[in-house]
Amino acid sequence: MSTESLHASATELLENWKPATHPEQSVREAMLAFLGSAPRGCLREHAPGHITASAVVFSYDEREVLLTLHPRVGRWIQLGGHCEPGDETVVDAALREATEESGIAGLEVEPGLYGAQAHPITCSLGVPTRHLDLLFKIRAPRGAVPVRSAESTDLRWWPVDALPADSDVLLR
């Protein structure tokens, strides 16, 4: 992993993103300011907060979205996680996380940023922090069958118009 390439990819994605709403614009500006002052802000070890990579995985026909019941969070959320060694870009991290957590090969990432969110969380390091989450829209191949990984309590397709009540998934 190149700390510089991850940082540059996150900055470029945010600079090129055109948010649809004022709250999204505020999140974008806050994340750019954060990255401007945190050269190591894409690394899990950056305790004040760090960029994370999420995948909003849609079925081939986009009628369903794949969600994981996260054991630490206790809610249905999109797939994703931390940037790791070997990830040259945040897009690489999102695709790796989606593939690892879904067990689905052949996922395709749409170009550009799908959205951005900020979440307070206590990571596996045990320190309260913030996840500055960059989201990517990913499409599964036709007939894809997910396989739950050890990182999930449950994993399933949900109709886009019937998501679990406690989910916080960005759909456009």
TrEMBL record:
Name of the featured protein: NUDIX hydrolase
Record-stated family: Belongs to the Nudix hydrolase family.
The record, for PROSITE patterns, names:
NUDIX
A UniProt-annotated Pfam family: NUDIX
Query: By its UniProt entry, which Gene3D superfamilies does this protein fall under?
Result: Nucleoside Triphosphate Pyrophosphohydrolase (3.90.79.10)
GO MF terms held by the record: hydrolase activity
List, for all copies, the residue spans of the domain called Nudix hydrolase.
48-172
Domain of life per record: Bacteria
Q: Does the keyword Transmembrane helix apply?
A: no
Q: Which UniProt keywords are listed?
A: Hydrolase
